């Protein structure tokens, strides 16, 4: 625990936010820029919010090196609403939604698409406990593919793409919820990407969706307005009242990321942080059994098992007594999961690694 009473939160989401962001939000809480109101109280039609909205869009574009051919949109409904919106908008009759099934969130997305149209499993690591992502050439694209859908980082099992598939003329769509803005992304390969904010870039309640304008244009006008991407693109995400406060925090996080040196610097930092934890797993592989195959390891979520579930429970409990919370694995996977998103300082990973080393010595 540091002097402000803050602990290291290794939870998978909602998760840590950068301290300077929280401090700025605190300083501006009662009187945002001399308005005498908090951001929670201002109109979404005010100049103040228009600036917040546009600055956040601009900074996200700068971070990802995007030009004006791209639209940055803010929506509600979490990452999960995107599972449904994507097929509703892009899976037309006669076409097939191709899914790389690399984890439970990719799987859930595919099940939602099944309700809308035809889908195909283009790749699956389900039978091996979702321990990896596809290697080059392993994706089997169906004929008449409407798109290929991937999940960049598998939050539950701890795998992450380190190279994205080449899909040629087939649009590539990706769920970046748990590694959004954690490293540079070759955005020219993608047509639409999204991320729920609460893992890497803000509070729950806002989802950032980034699409190529040419891909978003021409949706079926019979789609309900709030389920049609064009509504968000054409109205700057303010057709109705958007999640104003969440967008404000996402904007502050984007500015913080720029001040850190952008995504190039974050990639170096995140690689260094996760290595500190994986090095301990690799040092005692019979005690800390990593779930992901090494070349698919996530820089965001390290997942591992201990020899018994009793030891796992003790690990979580003792870590909490030492100022590290949120280490219990996802309810579907069990085990231990250490989430090390952008806002987790290196000191947190060092503290966890030292704890793991000590725990091994006492319980091996
Ligand atoms: C958490 C998560 C989701 C679900 O997000 P919600 O905002 O809770 O709907 C979807 N995909 C991935 C990869 C996630 O980590």
UniProtKB/TrEMBL annotation:
Q: Which biological process, per GO, is one annotated for this protein?
A: L-serine biosynthetic process
| Listed cofactors | pyridoxal 5'-phosphate
Return the EC number: 2.6.1.52
Listed under GO cellular component are: cytoplasm
Q: Where does pyridoxal 5'-phosphate bind?
A: 79-80, 105, 155, 175, 198, 240-241
Instruction: Spell out the reaction equation it catalyses.
Output: 4-(phosphooxy)-L-threonine + 2-oxoglutarate = (R)-3-hydroxy-2-oxo-4-phosphooxybutanoate + L-glutamate; O-phospho-L-serine + 2-oxoglutarate = 3-phosphooxypyruvate + L-glutamate
* Keyword terms, alphabetized: Amino-acid biosynthesis, Aminotransferase, Cytoplasm, Pyridoxal phosphate, Serine biosynthesis, Transferase
Which positions are annotated as binding L-glutamate? 45
What does the Swiss-Prot or TrEMBL cofactor note state? Binds 1 pyridoxal phosphate per subunit.
Q: Which residues carry this modification: N6-(pyridoxal phosphate)lysine?
A: 199
Quaternary structure (record): Homodimer.
Record's function text: Catalyzes the reversible conversion of 3-phosphohydroxypyruvate to phosphoserine and of 3-hydroxy-2-oxo-4-phosphonooxybutanoate to phosphohydroxythreonine.
PANTHER family on file: PHOSPHOSERINE AMINOTRANSFERASE
- Can you name this protein? Phosphoserine aminotransferase
State the species of origin: Acidaminococcus intestini (strain RyC-MR95)
């Amino acid at each position: 625990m540091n002097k402000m009473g803050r602990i290291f939160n290794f939870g998978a989401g909602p998760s840590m936010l950068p301290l300077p962001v929280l401090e700025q939000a605190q300083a501006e809480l009662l009187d945002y820029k001399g308005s005498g109101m908090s951001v929670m109280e201002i109109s979404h039609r005010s100049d103040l919010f228009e600036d917040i909205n546009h600055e956040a869009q601009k900074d996200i574009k700068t971070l990802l090196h995007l030009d004006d051919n791209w639209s940055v949109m803010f929506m509600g409904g979490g990452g999960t609403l995107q599972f449904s919106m994507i097929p509703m908008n892009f899976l037309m009759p006669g076409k097939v939604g191709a899914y790389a099934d690399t984890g439970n969130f990719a799987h859930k997305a595919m099940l939602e698409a099944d309700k809308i149209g035809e889908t195909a499993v283009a790749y699956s690591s389900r039978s091996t406990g979702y321990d990896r992502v596809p290697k080059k050439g392993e994706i089997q694209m169906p004929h008449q593919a409407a798109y290929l859908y991937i999940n960049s980082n598998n939050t539950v099992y701890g795998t992450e793409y380190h190279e994205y598939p080449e899909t040629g003329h087939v649009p590539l769509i990706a769920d970046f919820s748990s590694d959004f803005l954690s490293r540079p992304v070759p955005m020219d390969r993608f047509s639409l990407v999204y991320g729920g904010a609460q893992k890497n870039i803000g509070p729950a309640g806002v989802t950032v969706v980034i699409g190529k304008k040419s891909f978003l244009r021409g949706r079926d006008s019979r789609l309900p307005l709030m389920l049609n991407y064009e509504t968000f693109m054409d109205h700057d995400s303010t057709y109705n009242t958007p999640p104003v406060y969440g967008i404000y925090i996402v904007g502050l996080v984007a500015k913080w990321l720029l001040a850190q040196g952008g995504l190039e610097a974050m990639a170096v930092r995140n690689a260094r942080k996760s290595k500190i934890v994986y090095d301990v797993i690799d040092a005692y592989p019979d005690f800390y059994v990593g779930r992901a195959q090494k070349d698919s390891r996530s820089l965001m979520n390290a997942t591992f098992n201990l020899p018994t579930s009793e030891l796992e429970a003790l690990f979580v409990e003792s870590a909490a007594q030492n100022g590290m919370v949120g280490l219990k694995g996802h309810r579907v996977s069990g085990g231990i999961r250490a989430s090390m998103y952008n806002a987790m300082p290196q000191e947190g990973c060092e503290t966890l690694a030292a704890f793991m080393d000590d725990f091994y010595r006492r319980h091996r």
